[in-house]
Amino acid sequence: MRAGELMTAFPVTVTSQATVAEAFDLMRDMDIRHLPVVDGGALVGMLSDRDLAYLNVGALLTDQGADAVRRELAIPVIKVMRPDIICVEPETDVTEVIELLLEHKIGAVPVIRPGTQAVVGIVSYIDVLRAVQETLADDEESG
């Protein structure tokens, strides 16, 4: 099985100048944990819910007030995203995808068009688990 067969095509993305608030709202509204960050159609970073976990709204409100929270939420995602992107191409074998997820302790990898940085999909650990579940169900039915 290849990444292209497993991926979620046309994933939700943000630009590097989107605010933390915009990214947070998008992730919450779409019920997703990972956002590829793109500029001019090219992948420039990855933002995860873990990257946004630094924002401790309760502590900020208590210690510094609402203005501090507003300032943090207005920060562009380029300041909190991970620029060291681990990505794959559609033809990457799923075993390599799994190795990358495990080795780097990440929850998803963007899938890029070969020879470019254009995002065509994303493979998360959930996608991998769904594929394993389907394979196991097929094995039970045929066995």
Our measurement of the CA-to-CA distance between the termini, rounded to an integer number of angstroms, reads 21 Å
Which whole number gives the mean pLDDT? 88
Q: What structural category arises from helix and sheet content?
A: alpha+beta
Supply the CATH superfamily name. Answer: CBS-domain
Shape: globular
Number of domains: 1
Write the CATH architecture name.
Roll
Under CATH, the topology is which? CBS-domain
> Biggest sheet, strands in spatial order?
1-5-4
Which stretches of 5+ consecutive residues score pLDDT under 50?
A: none
> How much is the radius of gyration in Å?
17 Å
In short:
This protein is an alpha+beta fold and 143 residues long.
Structure, described:
There is one protein chain. The chain is of the alpha+beta class and 143 residues long. The protein has a single domain, classed as CBS-domain, CATH 3.10.580. 44% of the residues lie in helices and 18% in strands. It contains seven helices and five strands, in the order αβαββααααββα.
